[in-house]
Sequence to fold (479 residues):
Amino acid sequence: MLLSELLLDVQYAGSYKDCEISGITSDSRLVKEGSVFVCIKGARFDGHEKAKEAVEKGAVCVIVQERVGVENEILVENTRSAYALICANYYGRPAERLKLIGVTGTNGKTTITCLIKGMLEYTGEKAGLIGTIQNEVDDMHFPAKYTTPDPLEPHLMFKRMADAGCKYVVMEVSSHALDQHRLDGCRFESAIFTNLTQDHLDYHGTMENYFEAKKKLFSMCNNAIIDIDDEYGARLYEEVSCPKWSYSIKKDAADYTAYNVAFTISGSSFEMVSKGNIGRVKFCMPGEFSAANALAAGVCSLTLGMDFGEMIDALNHSKGVKGRAEILDTDTDYTIIRDYAHSPDSIEQILKTVKGFAPGRVVILFGCAGNRDRTKRKLMAKAASDYADYVILTSDNPRDEDPERIIEDAKPGLNPKTPCKIITDRYEAIKWALKNAKKDDVLLLAGKGHEDYQALDFGTIYFDESEIVKELLEKAEGK
Fold:
């Protein structure tokens, strides 16, 4: 590819000598002969400091937002935005061959994206998925590291999806990705807003900044689907200018509402109602939040061309999502559920749901993440101890933070009326929880969900809670 082709539709200043390029990167360690190096200014590192080194390693062009004085220097207003555009150009703008569906919000993104992909496939369409659990090209699965990855990766995935015959791509869109311009140049057919509760304030600083980051998606879409039960969703609905549809499990004024929501340990049921239409939904995941997620997926499917009856049928054939209110298959007289809940609101919501069907005690095992927003730790502890009958406070992904310090941050939020056991080592905490579980208990393993690892100060270890539970139960039975 020629450098001039790579810069198509990129606004820049300066001149350059056109030439063939061998690749593009924003990581100075990956620069090779013929590369284009994009200088990204981050919170801890400024790529502009590596511009001259990149040229010495063979970079034929350096893209900057501040002059550094190297040959073939291209000046742009924002290198993050320019990087997203040249990544699209590098792979031939594959997103233009697809219909993109984006889901953003604090909670519900993974469930909704999986639901929409499944519903599209149920009706005979080919679809790809980019998400927290994994990336999927039709029926091929690839591991995922970030909710919305570096711009080079999604455009490569878009190309693979388009080449495989996919018509749609359903993707989780993080606030970080929007704030860092990773999806600039993409146009979404439909975008969903689920909710906004305290999370990622270590990055955004304030809830207002967090909201404004999420809001950017709705300047990039043709149709907006918004949960107006959420305070920020109601505000967003008033502020967006594109065609929009509201959904709610509480408000009759919404375009689509869930009535008579009921749930058991095996799922939820409700009537989905709009002007002129009503359909009975039996959905395989429990809780009001699951009903809201199903509503969002259903409304989105309508914006993609499904008729109402077809949409209801597709929802009723939906499958559960790994690590989301997932009941583990165990031969015990109590129930074990694993869920990704890792914020105060998500812990509250899953516990309220479990309380609705638990025949005995509700026991929650949870921890708080390291190198993340410290202010939410005591709020997570408060939610856990306010809604559970017993709390086991342990570690999540401490990363390079002291696990004991993380627990100390959480402890002030604990309700003194709720019994609590503190075991720092998560494996030992699960072992203790299984040993002390009583008949009819529901044990909720919160925070890890689908994750099969734990991030510690010395590195990442394999840690799949479904396997750990199975192993510990077998050991207890002497197998």
